[in-house]
Amino acid sequence: MAEPKKYVSQAELQKHNRPEDLWISIQGKVYNVTDWSKVHPGGDLPLLQLAGQDATDAFVAYHPGTVWKYLDKFFTGYYLEDYSVSEVSKDYRKLVAEFSKMGLFEKKGHITFISLCFMAMLLVLIFYGIFCSNSTWVHLLCAAFTGCLWIQSGWLGHDSGHYQIMTSRGFNRAVQIITGNCVAGISIGWWKRNHNAHHIACNSLDFDPDLQHMPFFAVSSKFFSSLTSYFYERKMNFDSVTRFLVSYQHWTFYPVMCVARINLFAQSILLLLSKRKVPNRVQEIVGVLVFWIWYPLLLSCLPNWGERVMFVLASFTVTGIQHVQFCLNHFSSNVYVGSPNGNDWFEKQTKGTLNINCSSWMDWFHGGLQFQIEHHLFPRLPRCHLRKVSPFVRELCKKHNLPYHSASFWNANVMTIRTLRAAALQARDFANPVPKNLVWEAVNTHG
User: What sequence ranges are listed for the domain Cytochrome b5 heme-binding (predicted)?
Assistant: First the structure.
């Protein structure tokens, strides 16, 4: 005679939400992933963000069917009491299953090969232009090519972090280190930690690092209450300096995006030098060092400091296009405060994301971000299939009366600036007191 099933309530499950006591539920079965979180390939943050609750939809989104068999060793013997699945989640899971049957997650197309060839061509042109020409205009063109090189490396790094773009895990890791660390100077380990947290907690003001840009930007007045960042583990103080900077953020947005790469360099180095667990730390550090050898060496071959400064600014500015693209998909979308909820995965991803309308021949420019809704719902799906699955997602949103927001590249920029301006004007409200700052008072004193 089979033993009766043992159940735990939702309230009991929620108590197990700490790093030293971490439980989750998947399809009604309760798992203890406390030890697994320390070696989880996606890092500990996705598990911590969904700790103490059902995480089925997020698990389905991030893992192929072959992973299910490994869950048994984490099974606690308990089942979740009153476990139920919403109609939205049922349809979402069916869609994932259909795409799996169609083989879409395995068919990756030729984007990786084409991108690598294009990057190799850009590298040759850059070094040839610097070493074989004395023309300032040629050097400026090489700087623009360097920016394009970093953009393409960003798309490949993004893809390789979500799914295996090469024939083996070893080759996939090699491409990550080469395109991310060596070519662009960005730690793929930092990117994966940051990006996985963003995907799980899409547009949560206190959990999503992609919205936490204080003191320079605040997309919502809710930041003015000095929220705590659970990603950076610090309070985001809305002080007088922050108020001053945020008050003009709709004017400073594009200039800051032109040099935003500096922040990525800094964040990569801070993580690699920190005490946090970083998989393959030595690989990561060596890769970043390669970048800081070849890029300064390239600059040293320019004839004077004027051209060197021009080269850096031009290469950073061109790459700033990609930084703007990263912001367009989420800055003007719905935001919320609090931890992500595993039971409304589909709803949160669609409400917090904006697609960019474009013709298929412009897909290379957006690198998959033009179908950001589809990418957030199916992060393992190669970008060559995003346009193909878009009608299915749109239909599912329509069926359940959920938003499917999209806008042209121009209108997305307008919406982003409008959001920043609205928050900027609210930041100027003196009814919300902050510590006094002489710079703020001098700039904003009238009469």
Answer: 5-89
